[in-house]
Amino acid sequence: MNIDRIIIILETISISGRPISTTEIHKITRIPKPTCYRTVEQLLFHGILDDPNDNGKYLVGERLRTIAMAGTPDKDICLAISPLLQETAKKFDEAVFLSRFRNKGVEIIHVETPKDMTSSFVHPGLGFRPLHACSCSKAILAFSEDAFKQQILTAPKKQYTQNTKISKTELEKELKKIKEKGYAECVEEIQNGIASVAVPLKIRKIETLFSIGTIGPVNVFDAQKRNSLGNQLLKLSHQCSHILELNMT
């Protein structure tokens, strides 16, 4: 496919403000009709375009939206929602973190901590987390596409502690539970004595790429506390997702 024609077609659809047909695209762009139809079909096949009403009228597809969001620098994502995370860290009196999917794993890219110097809290640290053994990772994996999910579930997995789940059956059961509750938990699966809770950030028409969570000592983060935190984080996730939709899409 000619890259110049692809760009022209995508720009035409993007600025239309509504689903448009291949005939309309042809008239606007003057691209030969057979070439236009062929290019649109290929873009539709690869998920770059969507036909939301199954009527031959097209919008920019989920895959392209996801690519664009994935290309947003960490600093822009953090800048957009850090004020909400700061408020939450103060409210919880615990560290609150932001994570993003990257390279078949998840990275914690930003942490907000209580500003009260007398507070005692656990800092999660920045960097890589495995998809099978951390709340921030499982919150993303649970809502990912089935093909990718199965790829992770069937791959070899490291057991970090005696509580790390590595069997496909156990993890499938847990991911199903996460989808039902809306939030993920990690209880001494990465480090003994530490528990965390996280929720995905669901941005309209984009694959789940981000999660937010909180972390603390396992003796403080008991089942009741984790349930309370999970439900509060769900409310926060709606606010964060809305901000990212407005700023990044």
Strand content: 15-25%
Distance between the termini: 26 Å
**Helix content range:** 40-55%
Largest sheet: 6 strands, antiparallel
Per DSSP, the total helix count is 9
Mean of all residue-level pLDDT scores: 89
Output the structural class. alpha+beta
Q: Order of strands in the sheet with the most strands?
A: 6-5-4-9-8-7
Shape: elongated
Which spans of ≥5 residues are poorly predicted at pLDDT below 50?
A: none
Word description of this protein:
The chain is elongated, with a radius of gyration of 21 Å. The strands form 2 sheets. The protein has a 6-stranded antiparallel beta sheet with strand order 6-5-4-9-8-7. It has helices spanning 3-16, 22-29, 33-45, 62-70, 74-92, 135-141, 146-154, 168-181, 223-248; strands at residues 20-21, 49-50, 57-60, 95-102, 105-112, 127-129, 184-187, 194-201, 210-217. Helices cover 48% and strands 19% of the residues. The chain is an alpha+beta fold and 249 residues long. It starts with a helix and ends with a helix.
Sum up the structure in keywords:
48% helix; 249 residues; three-stranded antiparallel β-sheet; elongated; six-stranded antiparallel β-sheet; alpha+beta
Short description, anyone?
By secondary structure, the chain is an alpha+beta fold. Helix content is about 50%, strand content about 20%.
